[in-house]
Amino acid sequence: MIATHVLASSAGTNYTLVGVMLAIFVPIFAALAAILVGYFRLQGHRADAVAMASYRKLAEEAVANQGELRDQLGKLTEHVSAVEQLMRDVG
């Protein structure tokens, strides 16, 4: 009878041990998963920030170029006005 009891208890599942192991490992793995998700989101935001910085630099350069073009257009307008005045004086 003792041998039968030993065989029966060794074939069964120890739910207390399984519960303790799950209580320990499930939160650890959940925390690791949350850390990994947060890390990769942070890397994505960093990449977006770098891209936005380059777009901001490009926009600043475009504004500076527009200012230069506006100045050149003003000079060209003055020259065209001078040529028009010369043609009126001659014609």
* Distance linking N and C termini: 132 Å
Specify the overall morphology: rod-shaped
Fraction of helical residues? over 70%
Mean pLDDT rating = 88
Total number of helices: 2
**Tally of extended strands?**
0
Oligomer category:
single chain
Largest sheet: none
Strand content: under 5%
Please identify the structural class as seen in this structure. Answer: mainly alpha
Low-confidence stretches: 3-8
> Which radius of gyration do the C-alpha atoms yield?
39 Å
Could you state the order of secondary-structure elements as H and E? HH
Q: Any idea how many domains?
A: 1
Kindly describe this structure.
The chain has 91 residues and is mainly alpha-helical. Helix content is 95%, strand content 0%. The N and C termini lie far apart (132 Å). Residues 3-8 have low confidence and may be disordered.
Topology:
Blueprint lengths: L1 H10 L3 H76 L1
Give a quick rundown of the structure:
This protein has helices spanning 2-11, 15-90. By secondary structure, it is mainly alpha-helical.
